[in-house]
Amino acid sequence: MVIAKYYLLLWLPLTGFITHAQTNSSAPGIEMGTIVYGNSIKEKDYIRKLSSGTSHFSGSLTTSYYGLNLERTFFNDRLGIIAGARYSNSISSVGLTGFFHRHFDYFYLRISEEGTTTTYLKTQQLKQVSHYLGIPLEVRYLLFNSRFTRLYFKVGSVFDFLVKSKNEVDLAVTTSSFDLENTAANKLGTPDNFCPSLYGGIGLRLGRGAPLFNIEITLPSVQLNSNYSTLINPHAGGGLRLMFQIPLKTKK
Amino acid sequence: MSRLILLLIVPVLIAACINPPPEELDRSVFIADTQYPDLPAYTEWGYNTFGAHYNEDVFLYTSSVTARATKDTLTFEFCGTLKKASPHESVTVYFSLAEKHPSTYADLVALHATSFDLTSSTAITSLYVNGKRKKGTISNGHLEFKRAQYLLVNGQPDRVILSGYFDFQFLTDTHQTITVKDGRFDIGINGNNFYMY
After folding, report:
1. A51–B112: do the CB atoms touch at under 8 Å?
2. What domain count does chain B have?
3. Contacts of A120 in chain B (CB under 8 A)
4. A6 Cα distance to chain centroid
5. Chain A residue closest in CA terms to B24
6. Sign of the torsion formed by the C-alpha atoms of A59, A182, B189 and B31
7. Do the Cβ atoms of A126 and A167 come closer than 8 Å?
8. Which positions ≥6 away from A15 have C-beta within 8 Å?
9. How many independent structural domains does chain A possess?
10. CA distance A56 to chain B (A)
11. Is residue A140 part of a domain?
12. What average pLDDT does this structure show over A205-217?
């Protein structure tokens, strides 16, 4: 809730500006992009530590997104404010890497402790796939007004709500018991329902009139909720974004 | 030069392919204790470690603990070295428990939450330094199996994990006192290190 409060404080003045400032043009658009996050693996009390061999745990966290948006530009097409709706898909995983990877490609999960009986699962990889619906809100400043190619700088945030999350456990050896796999998958937990992020970017807008094509490097992108994944602590990330727009109207 | 490197690397790779390393559960995992970083932390994962303070030195595992059962005694062999001594001295401690006679390693789970007074006649401690038995008596001490777990891996029986503490004071015949304290162990016992006689 604290994150939500700060988020609203940040963006409420902006929404007021959108409704009152004189608009130069409006441009609906579609976007797609991907962000790869630097990360560290979360300490889990159900993962057995590795011996000092040649393998070690490694993690990854990648988000892909697709969205529809509307941009309004102001101040002679120099300032653009973009809002819309975005679907994003986040994949986090924990596995092993090492020189003799072939021999050390498993680790153990402790999935149950009942009385004096304990069950481990020989595992190769843990994976969490989460689906979000979000509201992106962005401000960009465009340079070189009269040119076909315009450089721009952007800051933005997206207000993501978790729709669905699924955990997968890749076993090192096949087992006939699906209960064991399900128990292990449930151990991984679920990400938080609300996961806002902040990001910056630099890009090029190509075109004059309609249509417009935007290619952008997103850097950095920071997840404000560390429980965006239950496996991975997200650090700053970076990525690529493409956006296609068709301007609708022009006021002078 | 590159041929020399190849000559060195190729045998290593071939050896790695022919002799796969032991199972991860058979290897030792040292997790340092926060209070005594020279000792392994007390754990219950079957990390195949033990350690204790041995007078001013540190007694640390060198190989996996073995369990030997006869019809009337169960003996655990803790084989290690004194870490600070130069050259390293090998130390082996045997804890022999009378009235415990498991027929398979799985029966060791009965040790769950049990404690033994090492001065009693039913729990005998023997101490070997550099292969020579120290003669003397235990003045006080205890061996505690805080937790015993029957471990299933992917639903199949694999081993018994024994975790606990030990300490004792040993008075040698030459009036030397050996104090072993802060001892802890976390060991896995299965068909590979359980022997029945």
Report:
1. no
2. 1
3. 25, 151-154, 158
4. 20
5. A51
6. positive
7. yes
8. none
9. 1
10. 13
11. yes
12. 92
User: Distance of CA B170 to CAs B65, B97, B127, B128, B142, Å?
Assistant: 21, 17, 9, 12, 12
Q: Distance (Å) from the C-alpha of residue A123 to the closest C-alpha of chain B?
A: 9
The encoded tokens of residue B32 equal 């340092």
Is B93 among the domain residues? yes
| pLDDT score of A252 | 47
Asked if residue B7 belongs to a domain, the reply is: no
ipTM: 0.88
**Banded pLDDT at B86 (limits 50, 70, 90):** confident
Q: What is the pLDDT of residue A97?
A: 82
A119 located within any domain: no
Residues in chain A, overall count: 252
In a domain, B4, yes or no: no
| C-alpha of A148 from chain center | 31
Q: Residue A48: list chain B partners with CB under 8 A.
A: 29, 45
* Residue B2 forms part of a structural domain: no
Residue B180: alpha-carbon gap to chain centroid: 14
Burial of A130 (0-12, 13-18, 19+ CB in 10 A): buried
CATH code for position A154: 2.40.160.20
| Residue B45 forms contact with A (CB below 8 Å) | yes
B92 vs A23: CA distance, rounded Å: 85
Report CA A77 to chain centroid distance, whole Å. 29
Task: Quote the pLDDT of residue A150.
Answer: 94
Residue with tokens 């995983």: A93
Residues 6+ apart with CB under 8 A from B133: B126, B127
- Domain range holding A209? 22-44+58-93+128-167+189-249
**DSSP code, position B36:** -
Residues A118, B21: C-beta atoms closer than 8 Å: no
Q: How far is CA A224 from CA A189, A233, A234, in A?
A: 19, 11, 9
Q: Residue B160: which domain range?
A: 28-196
CA distance A175 to A120: 12
CB contact under 8 A, A110 and B45: yes
- What does DSSP say about strands B177-189 and B136-153: parallel, antiparallel, or unpaired? unpaired
- What per-residue confidence (pLDDT) applies to A54? 63
Does the pLDDT value for residue A27 go beyond 60? yes
